[in-house]
Amino acid sequence: MADKHIEFVVEPAEDPSVEKYRKDNLMHVSSQKIIKINPSNSYMPAPFRDHIDRIRRFTVRPDDVWLVTYPKCGTTWTQEMLWLLINNLDFETAKKIQLIRRSPFLEFNEDFHSVDTMKIAENIASPRLIKSHLPLQLLPQQLWTVKPKVRIIYVTRDAKDVAVSYFHHHKLMCKYNGTLNDFVDAFISGYALPGTIWDHILDFWNIRHEPNLLLISYEEMKKAIRRIATKTAQFLNRSLTEEQLKQLCEHLSFESMKKNPAVNLEEQLQKIRERQNFEVEEKFIRKGKVGGWKDELSPEASEKIDKWTREKLRGTDYPCCRYGYSVGVAALCMRAGDMAARISVDMADKHIDFVVEPAEDPSVEKYRKANLVHFSTQKIIKITPSNSYIERIRRFTVRPDDVWIVTYPKCGTTWSQEMLWLLINDLDFETARTINLSRRSPCIDTKYIGKEHQFPDTIKGTEEFKSPRLIKSHLPLQLLPQQLWTVKPKVIYVTRDAKDVAVSYFHHHKLFSKYTGTLNDFVDAFVNGYVMPGALWDHTLDFWKIRHEPNVLFNTYEEMRKIENSTFVTKTAKFLNRSLTEEQLKQLCEHLSFESMKKNPAVNLEEELQQIRKQQKSEIEEQFIRKGKVGGWKEELCPEASEKIEKWTREKLRVYLYSYELVRITPSNCCMSPGFPEKIDTIRSFTVRPDDVWVVTYPKCGTTWTQEMVWLLLNDIDFETAKSVSIGFLGSKEHHPNQLDTIKLLENMKSPRCIKSHLPAELLPKQLWTVKPKFVLLEVEAKDALVSSYHHHRLFFSFVESCDEFAEYFMAGIVGCGYMWDHVLGFWKIRDEPNVLFNTFEEMKKDLPGVVKRTADFLGRSLTSEQLENLCEHLSFKSMKDNKAVSHEDEMHHREEKQAVQLKGKVYPFMRKGEVGSWKSDLSPEVAEKVDNWTKEKLTGTDYPITF
């Protein structure tokens, strides 16, 4: 990003299509030639050629705020919000002074427009808000070097909405005379300035974790402007009172923005119409709808954009479009802070320039002198003068048959390395006992971490190794060879419990670096990332995010310690396409046992350590292979150090401690686990039968209660069978390869089927709306649903924060199935259909017999008084909780105990209280009020009854 040596190749855009689109007024200025600029792969009017260098050398100020977007992604809306936030909510000025005068548009330059906007931007008073649509590579170089770093806000939007909005923009501003279908072709080909949307977005997506960058989406802003305004204010270090937030959101409402002459450009547009004798009645601020493309794009154009999007995002870690559904990240394991070797750039970026700076933090010097960082006589650098070794590693030639073992230090590297070497070398135990492992499997970064004369040139040695090579590295993902992500050899990553790593690494430093500090001092350094190669969780999370890649195997030390059950070895062998006989598996597991490894001179480094002790005159009796215990930290860490690591881990991993990762799927705006998008098409094409009964609810709204009632009504009140039969669940486990294929089970189920689902209406099978089976829907008061969902997340996903904190995620839709009220309202619209019955949890608690009777009538079942009484007794909360077929008591008991220990507090069972209003014992009054206000906001403008 800060590469001072980039040479921009500017060439005439000779493609015949460019000329066609230019004459159609697509490229803003039909009288001007168009140029193509590489490596940004962008098209611009020819006069822009003369301004590339001027823009790149533009002087950036530390207090600048930069808004960068692809056109028509909500730029004006965001720009107005940002200007107000950095100007003390000066609404008066915001209504009188044109936004383009308050916040300059950097590249709106004099040679192809009427003003020198760069000169205006240079002269404007601080703090400046500067807008740009330029791709990342063409922005000023100082954006990446000025300290403290300037704030950059980047906004994305659904590609189809952008295409339609940009089409109308061209009609308005450029007298574009082509059709929408023509425009879509140009948009996809990158002929609309400044190039293709996905190239533009992905460059910023790849640096999204930079602390000075905030990446938001237009859809988020439309869905929850209060939350985005609050989040943006925090990013800009601005605080807002409730009243100020309310005023800001009112000012930013679509209607207010559309009427505001300082942002809607009506005055300027009228002059353009008069000057050009232009009769088009387009507006600059048009509709602002999410999904508005549906009103205008043909099915062919829509599919064309979907297909193009899938192609552009394939091979990236950007959540891609599948089956026409846009998938975006909703909640991942969050990262916090800098790691000692962070470089936030595209992994395959050929123009990378590493920002390497002295690590001036006084703590670094303190730890260096204590021999923490291996070599007390050496200066420490923070990789963010760059030695050539880094560049050599990045440009290292990777082979397709390589196997790479990458770990944070002390996570079972040697153990994994020995296993992998044997698997790819036909279990050559003889060589494995006689030839040192470091000679069989090189560590590519050994020389990088030490003095050049202390270690051999391992890169050169690795280059000369015969295939197949097993290469070891402790480097973070961003510093590994670029070709790893294009050649795609096998990569095995191993992680370990943070407290065990800290203790093991402490002893490692005492052994190899004569570390003189205490274990508590080491824990401080470990948590702050002052040990090489930085912070454990930054290292681990980068690989966690790519664990679904077919060439990546993500393992844990704890799995490996169960070596005696051989499952781990078998899994790894299968990943490497190696097969093992029972006898071979037994031999390998014996060789890899802890005792065997500790005695093996080819891996235990005893000979080398003896030499080190003599050279250093050291009496430390540490061993390289020490204890290898899971939980060994308990014998050494004090409670304070243990709590420090736990707190740090919670902050680093935020909510779900590895257990929960979500993607958001639009147009349903629903959150599901990462594998779910692969099943959308299968679910949508699921065959529905006329006699099906579908129980559909938002999670934790009384689903189990309702489905038990419906199943019994459909099956002649067969209480005996109800104790042993599981009801079909669509949309739950089918995206986990090791779980049951629930879709297949449903397909084979006899009629009448009772099918349960938590999916929103948009993701359910298409045939539901044509075959029209019976629907039984259930809803519960939002605060009760929230609290029940909170306890569910504690039980199943190790949620570590408070219920009040969970409420923020719940209202933001960052829980399974997304926003509650979107889900409920999607079905509320069809409540009057004859095949739909809409119940509430509160009704069932207040008058269960009445609800049962109404449901029986709806399903065409008649009940005697005795049957009704027996059914209500069976459905009572006590009976349901005692019924193992629905409470899952046996399988949940162990989970509850385990989670209670892990989360240090009460963990409730699957069936908890079943009370109306039970939220009062978990939610604070302030958060309860916030949830009520959120509910009112979501239900305003609907006819859904507000009952609190």
Topology:
Blueprint: E1 9-12, H1 16-23, E2 34-38, E3 42-45, H2 52-56, E4 65-69, H3 75-86, H4 91-96, H5 99-102, H6 117-123, E5 129-132, E6 151-156, H7 159-174, H8 180-189, H9 197-205, E7 213-217, H10 218-223, H11 225-235, H12 242-251, H13 254-259, H14 266-276, H15 299-313, E8 326-331, E9 356-358, H16 362-369, E10 381-383, H17 388-394, E11 403-407, H18 413-424, H19 429-434, H20 437-440, H21 458-464, E12 470-473, H22 484-487, E13 490-495, H23 498-513, H24 519-527, H25 536-544, E14 552-556, H26 557-560, H27 567-575, H28 582-591, H29 594-599, H30 606-616, H31 639-653, E15 662-666, E16 670-672, H32 680-684, E17 693-697, H33 703-714, H34 719-722, E18 728-730, H35 742-748, E19 754-757, H36 768-771, E20 774-779, H37 782-797, H38 803-811, H39 820-828, E21 836-840, H40 841-846, H41 848-858, H42 865-874, H43 877-882, H44 884-887, H45 889-903, H46 925-939
Helix pairs in contact: 8-15, 11-12, 24-31, 37-38, 41-42
Organism: Diploptera punctata
InterPro entries: P-loop_NTPase (IPR027417), Sulfotransferase_dom (IPR000863)
Domain Sulfotransferase: 62-316, 400-654, 690-942
Detailed description of the structure:
The chain has 3 domains: 56-317, P-loop containing nucleotide triphosphate hydrolases (Rossmann fold, 3-Layer(aba) Sandwich), CATH 3.40.50.300; 356-653, P-loop containing nucleotide triphosphate hydrolases (Rossmann fold), CATH 3.40.50; 690-939, 3-Layer(aba) Sandwich (Rossmann fold). The chain has 948 residues and is of the alpha/beta class. The longest helix has 16 residues, at 159-174. It has 46 helices and 21 strands. 40% of the residues are buried. α41 packs across α42. A hairpin with a 3-residue loop joins β15 and β16. Keywords: Transferase. InterPro entries: P-loop_NTPase, Sulfotransferase_dom.
